[in-house]
Specification:
This protein has helices at residues 5-33, 41-58, 61-70, 76-110, 122-141, 162-189, 197-224, 231-243, 248-251, 253-265; strands spanning 145-147, 154-156. A two-stranded antiparallel ribbon has the order 1-2. It is mainly α and 266 residues long. A hairpin with a 6-residue loop joins strand 1 and strand 2 (154-156). The radius of gyration is 19 Å and the shape is globular. The protein is 74% helix and 2% strand.
Length: 266
Amino acid sequence: MPLTLNEHYTASAACFIGGTLSVVTQLWLLFDFLPMLRVSKGLKSLHQHLTLANLFVVLFFFMGAISHFEQRWIFGDTMCKFYVFWCKFTPVASMTLLALCLYGEYQHALDPSLEKKNVSYTIPLCMAWAYGLLWGSLALTASEYGQEPAGFTCTVIWYKVQSFTNYLTILGFGTPSLLAFYYSFNLWHKGFLIDNPMAQAAVGLMISMTAQFSAYAGCYMMVLAGHHLSLYAIAFPQIWTKSVGVVHPFIYSHVFASNSTNEKEE
């Protein structure tokens, strides 16, 4: 059953409002909040690259919002290809950068002297971005793509190319997610989260971003299990993914409070 006109308009409004707020919050974190933090240059660069990737994830939210309003994809085949590439490149890069960010927090917690050594993460950062580019490229060359069943956005047709979708889920998202969980668990288990607001923020981002991208995985697993999803359920992950970035400033709130306290003490 197709979406009703009111459902299209509701989804369009939700996508536009959530996407706009997410873009604004990521821009604030990237250009105002993170640059003023008094942490090592290496850790700051990890969080900045992660925030940039999260900004890229939500950057083209307006395409989904407009297409929902128009009830069809109106941007043509070339932009469809770009959108498919972008929507696989940016989430994979984002999750890989999250794992790298948590690795950096764990290493600094193990060896506090790294705070003064300004450790460079240039090569791992380049590799994380390259990993996202790989999966974005594979989405165009090793799979089928087109409009989703809900008819408002272009994506990999995941119910037709299950082998590619399985690889993307396991390697593109699953592996970075497991690494992120591993370092988060070790930060908690070894007591490194105590009085460490940056590490607390990184773990908070891990929880938020896992919830952010799990909506797609949930839909895919339900289809594989033989469940018939409504078009509204298929449309939901797109809206959810573009909106979750709104909570990131709240996740960094402990860092902001700690930074303000340190400035007053000095």
